[in-house]
């Protein structure tokens, strides 16, 4: 009564793969990749490179905000001098950033 006979027959949609139905999901996936995943991977590579380049004499800041000078460096751990004759051991992964030389003296 309210349904037209052509629509009720069920011949309105073609059988098979409909690319236009998947196009919005493909576009969303590409945007997600470009805006979220790719920059995060780039940031991780830069962080890993920075951590691997830390050597004795570099000044670093930890994730906890401790600023210190590297006096001993091993593969997994760093020994930081945070004050005169005060040294602490931290994991390399706990280093948040490398500082310019002389930063500790200006603090």
What percent of residues adopt helix (DSSP H or I)? 25-40%
- Would you tell me the overall average pLDDT? 87
Radius of gyration: 28 Å
The CATH architecture classification is: Roll
As for the number of domains, it is 1
Helix-strand category: alpha+beta
Largest sheet, in brief, is: 5 strands, antiparallel
| CATH class annotation | Mainly Beta
Q: How big a fraction of the residues is strand?
A: 25-35%
How does the overall form come out from the CA principal axes? rod-shaped
String of helices and strands: HHEEEEEH
Between the first and last Cα atoms, what is the distance in angstroms?
84 Å
In short:
The chain has 107 residues and is of the alpha+beta class. It has one domain (23-105): Roll (SH3 type barrels), CATH 2.30.30. It is 39% helix and 27% strand.
Q: Overview of this structure, please?
A:
- There is one protein chain.
- The chain has helices spanning 5-8, 19-52, 103-106; strands spanning 59-62, 67-73, 77-83, 86-91, 95-99.
- It has one domain: SH3 type barrels, CATH 2.30.30.
- It is rod-shaped.
- It contains three helices and five strands, in the order ααβββββα.
- A five-stranded antiparallel β-sheet has the order 4-3-2-1-5, with helices on one face.
- With 107 residues, the protein is α+β, with helices and mostly antiparallel strands.
- The protein is 39% helix and 27% strand.
- The mean pLDDT is 87.
- It is a single-pass membrane protein.
- The chain crosses the membrane at residues 20-37.
- Keywords: Cell membrane, Membrane, Protein transport, Translocation, Transmembrane, Transmembrane helix, Transport.
- Belongs to the YajC family.
- It is found in: Cell membrane.
